[in-house]
Amino acid sequence: MTGGGALIISPDALLIKVIGLPDAEILIWRGLLTALGFIAIVVARHGRAAPLAYRRCGWTGIGVAVLFSFSTFGFVLGNQYTRGGNVLMILAGAPLIAALLSRVFLHERLPRRTWLAIFGCLLGIALIALDDAGSGSWLGNGFALLAATALAANFTLARTRPGVDMSPMLTLAGLIVAVAAGLYGLLGPGVELPSGPSLLWLVVLCLVLLPLGFTLIQRGPLYLPAAEVGLLMLLEVVVGTLWVWWLLGERPAPAAFLGGALVLGSLLAKGLVDRRIERRRRAPDAAQHEPC
Fold first, then answer.
1. Where are the domains of the chain?
2. Rounded to an integer, what distance in angstroms lies between the CA atom of residue 165 and that of residue 1?
3. What is the crossing angle of helices 112-129 and 84-91, to 10°?
4. How many CB atoms lie within 10 A of CB 187?
5. Within a 13 Å sphere around the CA of 208, how many CA atoms are in the beta-carbon half?
6. pLDDT at 215 exceeding the cut of 90
7. Which one-letter DSSP state was computed for residue 188?
8. Can you give the pTM of this predicted structure?
9. How many Cα atoms are found within 13 Å in the side-chain-facing hemisphere of 10?
10. pLDDT of residue 238
11. Looking at residue 292, what is its pLDDT?
12. pLDDT recorded at residue 216
């Protein structure tokens, strides 16, 4: 579920480049359209019980929404004030931050294979971002760190309510982003709705892909530790880089190919080991239930 969500949102960076709106405008329309998309998903899933799905999240859901909006602002503004490579490398630290937060607040311990996968992915992301990395600015790096920390804290907070789906509260996160960006936009020349192909891609990205993908990702903490959810989100970086190369001709450096292979290989190896361990655990139970 989490990996599928990461793949669905992987064209995010590509479509932002294609749409070509200023940061304030893309945040406003992103917030409004994703909020509509999240509402549509909640209504489709729960029908008349949709209000109950929101109420069930409680104050924890409000915290999740605020943290999700912080991660959105941090990602967009981080790319504005520092190099994209710096943002990617800092965001790759989200699984480590989530592991630390989960250990302190939830007393969750991660197996050694998960730590190995995290460090393997960190190395892979560093290779991907190497060609675009630089000193950047402290402000931009700070925004990227805000995005990584808010993302990790979001998943950790969602784990404090086992069995409660927090994805409906992403509707509120979209509204927070839209209102905050709208207040910022009042200081500029104004906000205009794009036209032509830009409008089409804006609707596809913000009304369809982001709500669907992030709904799946936000449900990840129902089944996985926060660090593993953050780890699987690194798929977006690898696949998103391939989208930009394929459709815009921005060929990655050779080190980026090696980094992408390392990220995918780490996730695949961890998945295969997890599957083997799960089968071994189920084998004794299946033997006990066999008819005599």
1. 2-276
2. 13
3. 180
4. 7
5. 9
6. yes
7. T
8. 0.86
9. 22
10. 84
11. 54
12. 96
Q: Which residue do the tokens 């990655």 mark?
A: 252
Contacts of 212 (CB under 8 A, 6+ apart): 5, 8, 37, 41
* The pLDDT of residue 54: 95
Asked if the model's pLDDT at residue 132 lies above 70, the reply is no
Say which DSSP state 13 is in. H
Entry field: residues in the chain: 292
**What is the average pLDDT score of the chain?**
86
Q: Which residue has the tokens 């069995």?
A: 163
With H, G, I as helix, E, B as strand and everything else as coil, classify residue 8. helix
Q: Can you tell me which residue has the tokens 């064209």? A: 11
CB 35 within 8 A of CB 174: yes
Residue 171 has, within 13 A of its CA and on its CB side, a CA count of 17
Distances (CA, A) of 116 to 34, 140, 223, 262: 35, 29, 20, 12
pLDDT at 264 > cutoff 60: yes
Question: Do the beta carbons of residue 157 and residue 221 sit within 8 Å?
Answer: no
Does the CA dihedral 1-6-155-183 come out positive or negative? Answer: negative
In angstroms, the CA 41 to CA 32 distance is: 15
